[in-house]
Amino acid sequence: MNQLFPVFLKLEHLHVLLVGGGNVGLEKLTALLANSPEARVTVVATYFLPEMQQLASDRVLLHERAFQWEDLDEKDLVILATDDRALHAAICEKTRRMRLLTNVADTPDLCDFYLSSVVRKGDLKIAISTNGKSPTVAKRLREFLTDVIPDNIQDILDNLTVIRNRIQGDFKEKVDQLNKLTEGLIHKKPE
Ligand SMILES: C[C@@]1(CC(=O)O)C2=NC(=C\c3[nH]c(c(CCC(=O)O)c3CC(=O)O)Cc3[nH]c(c(CC(=O)O)c3CCC(=O)O)/C=C3\N/C(=C\2)[C@@H](CCC(=O)O)[C@]3(C)CC(=O)O)/[C@H]1CCC(=O)O
Ligand SMILES: NC(=O)c1ccc[n+]([C@@H]2O[C@H](COP(=O)([O-])OP(=O)(O)OC[C@H]3O[C@@H](n4cnc5c(N)ncnc54)[C@H](O)[C@@H]3O)[C@@H](O)[C@H]2O)c1
């Protein structure tokens, strides 16, 4: 059974430390910014890929140097993506004591949280986890769901928001009406 607890984070309220500026670091930073363009991220690496340098901004700070313990100060989340496994283990030992949630690329056992595969259509977002079993299956499911979810889902969400704000009455009445209105939204496969 998958025991991971899913949440959706407001990264513009948090400060993420990313260590590593190579391929994996770039993948993680791209995922952070694709989902949360206003995320506050500090990236520390002895070397940065040029693509990574292009992502720098007033909210995404790049420091070209080796990791220092002070980098952990005032951070809310840590993502480790270097090629130095001993460094990852040492940092994890410290972040665990600090209760600073940490993700270590390619080392599920050291992770407090995993990044998910993400389906995005306007305001709709679906995060997929395979419990670390197969990121490739997560990717395939993302592709499938992106394909089958209608492109007009945003219109549906916008309409429902207007209706939701307009409906009067007590809470139960409101919930009943919204359930009725959306009854035919998903066409179940015939048995
Ligand atoms: C969702 C996604 C987000 C992201 O991180 O970008 C993600 N991996 C993605 C892709 C991907 N990663 C890898 C491949 C190559 C094929 C393969 O190895 O299987 C592919 C496929 C590809 O790129 O096509 C390599 C890999 N990944 C991990 C290991 C270590 C291990 O499993 O032991 C290794 C072996 C490294 C090695 O060989 O050394 C571990 C993790 N990867 C996770 C997330 C977490 C579990 C998520 C879940 O529960 O499903 C977890 C546990 C930790 C974490 O990283 O947070 C993203 C999908 C993006 C999309 O939607 O397109
Ligand atoms: N590239 C992939 O798709 C891939 C796939 C599977 C596994 N991996 C593994 O993941 C790890 C990272 O891969 P990569 O391709 O991003 O490597 P990379 O060599 O491109 O990048 C490593 C990064 O770590 C930084 N770094 C190393 N020591 C540091 C330190 N002390 N302080 C700060 N920064 C430091 C380097 O400056 C560089 O930016 C490797 O161990 C690799 O074997 C990578």
TrEMBL record:
Pfam families: NAD_binding_7, Sirohm_synth_M. Residues 122-145 form the Siroheme synthase central domain. One of its GO terms (molecular function) is precorrin-2 dehydrogenase activity. It comes from the Bacteria. One of its GO terms (biological process) is siroheme biosynthetic process. Keywords: NAD, Oxidoreductase, Porphyrin biosynthesis. It is an enzyme of class 1 (oxidoreductase). Pathway: Porphyrin-containing compound metabolism; siroheme biosynthesis; sirohydrochlorin from precorrin-2: step 1/1. It catalyses: precorrin-2 + NAD(+) = sirohydrochlorin + NADH + 2 H(+). The keyword NAD applies. Its EC number is 1.3.1.76. This is precorrin-2 dehydrogenase. It comes from Siphonobacter aquaeclarae.
